[in-house]
Amino acid sequence: MKKLLLTLAMAFGAINSGFAADLYVNNSGQSGTYTSIQSALNVASSGDRIFVSPYGVYSENLTISKSITIAPSVSGSNIVLNGTITFWPEANDEINLIGVNGLGCALTTNTITATVNSKAIINVISCVFNTSVNLAHSAIIVNSSFSTFQNFNLTYGNTIGCTVIGTLTYNDGPNLVLNDTNLIVANKIESRLQYGNDDYFYRISNNKVRYGINISRAVYNSNIKNYITNNWINQDNNAQNSNDGITFWFQNTSDNFSNVIVIGNVNHVINYASTSNQYGAQMFYFSGPTGTIVSSSNSPIMFYNLLLYSQVTGGGSLSLIRQSSNVTGSFTQGYNYAYNDGTDLNGYLTIGTNGRFEFKHLGPNDKQKISLSNYFTDKNSPSTEYQDLDLSRGDLGVWGGPYSWDNYWYESGRSRILHINLPSEIWPGQTVNLKAEAVHTN
Predict the structure, then answer these.
(1) Residue of 298, 288, 294, 229 whose CA lies nearest to 259
(2) pTM (2 decimals)?
(3) Helix or strand holding residue 140 (H, E)
(4) CA-wise closest residue to 5 among 65, 62, 63, 77
(5) Which of 9, 59, 181, 440 is an S-S bond match for 415, by CB 3.0 to 4.6 Å?
(6) Which long-range contacts (CB under 8 A, 24 or more apart) does 74-82 make?
(7) Residue-level pLDDT at 338
(8) Cα(161)–Cα(404) distance, rounded to whole angstroms?
């Protein structure tokens, strides 16, 4: 188990070059063991590991103020904690929580000496929290993988392969462009993904989101791209409103989203029932303060995004691109595809001749493949940048691209891949070298 936990921790970067000591929490009564997690924390030094027996429930409130790893002592088990966790990290501390099952557990984030330029790191690995978790703090990076949350709020960090029962929210920081990237990859989000941070760049890829992806802050750099790729939206919801699909909210008229690449996303509208006072359903929605002008100079680059619907009733309309009444401009002129009920809107939006948007309908054979697991192989961008793990290119939805869903939502016994590097070109006779970081969980 120690070897496994060390591998898990190293997947996010080792805390130090070596661990000072291993401490054990159990009810054995043996010399050198502790009967509570907090008692072990009190005597632990920075960089120590605390292995906790999974047998029983730990009813205690934890305060963590040093670099530490807390993990179960038995492979494939969980630490059941009935209490709170309060973080007080110092500058550059790194805290690993592995396999913690929090019963009504509130997490609170503070700092001792950590700052925006000397952030602490909290890694949450294979944990379950049945309440909302708010770890938003401008001096703390929160990396979460293969964990479950009710609602989850943070400011910086990677969220990979997690389940969020409610909303995943990235909050705004101190408005400093810090030239790092938040990875939001292969998560299952039952409500919305709300991204409102203009300090870090972002890659939002291969997520399943029930209602929509809302981007409310713009971090612009002509040399760095933000990516929204291969996400699957609106799998089974009936109600639609103005910010379903993928929404871009201009905070002020000078915001610029032109370094955002939006490719291979699927919005699947099922059993949509609209009335005269509803907005309808759309693939993209633009909103902002009065006077906002959306044009080719400040809009995202969007192509090969798929809008599907199974059944539509009522008086609303379906649109590929929609904008609020206070947003104007030529970007959507002639391409705000609004269809009455019954019109065939199964197809994808791409950029055609003269840089204009074109909507391409699915053929009869393609329509038969509308499912979550069998989709549009090699119908996306031919660019090697979007190459799939099966060495094809451009599958639409969560099975497309280098962050394919299959890496993170696995069959029993398989490893979960955190990061993988693929060659951009493969030539006859070439030896292919793949580099990956993975963890294995039971």
Answers:
(1) 298
(2) 0.86
(3) strand 140-145
(4) 77
(5) 440
(6) 74/1, 75/1, 75/4, 75/442, 76/441, 76/442, 78/54, 78/128, 79/37, 79/52, 79/54, 80/54, 80/56, 81/37, 81/57, 81/105, 82/57, 82/58
(7) 45
(8) 11
Point out which residues pair with 64 in neighbouring strands: 87
Triad 46, 48, 51: Cα angle to 5°: 145
- pLDDT tens by residue, 91-123: 999 999 999 999 889 899 999 999 998 999 999
Burial status of residue 127 (CB atoms within 10 A of its CB: 0-12, 13-18, 19 or more): buried
Check if the beta carbon of residue 8 is closer than 8 Å to that of residue 35. no
How many other C-beta atoms are found inside a 10 Å radius of the C-beta of residue 16? 10
Region 122-142: mean pLDDT is 94
- Determine contact, residues 442/76, Cβ cutoff 8 Å: yes
Per-residue pLDDT of 377-403, as tens digits, reads 555 555 655 566 666 666 778 878 888
CA distance 10 to 310: 45
CA dihedral 50, 51, 57, 63 (to 10 degrees): 10
Q: Which residue blocks in 202-346 are alpha helix, DSSP H?
A: none
* Alpha-carbon gap, residue 332 to 344, rounded angstroms: 20
Least confident of 53-67, 249-263, 336-350, 417-431: 336-350
Contact 63, 84 (CB under 8 A): no
What pairing do the DSSP bridges indicate for beta strands 305-309 and 347-351?
antiparallel
Q: Report how many domains make up the chain.
A: 1
Question: Is the CB of residue 187 less than 8 Å from the CB of residue 164?
Answer: yes
- Name 174's Cβ contacts closer than 8 Å, sequence gap at least 6: 116, 138, 199
Classify residue 118 by its DSSP letter: B
Encoding tokens for residue 160? 């990979």
Q: How far apart are CA 407 and CA 161, in angstroms?
A: 9
Instruction: Specify the pLDDT at position 378.
Output: 54
230, HSE (Cβ side, Cα atoms, 13 Å): 31
> From the centroid of its chain, how far is CA 260?
16
208: domain range? 2-439
Confidence check: pLDDT of 238 > 50: yes
- Torsion angles phi and psi, residue 37, rounded to 5: -70, -40
Q: Distances in Å between the alpha carbon of 99 and those of 84, 123, 124, 183, 203?
A: 15, 11, 8, 22, 26
- pLDDT value at position 4? 41
Distance of CA 418 to the CA centre of its chain: 13
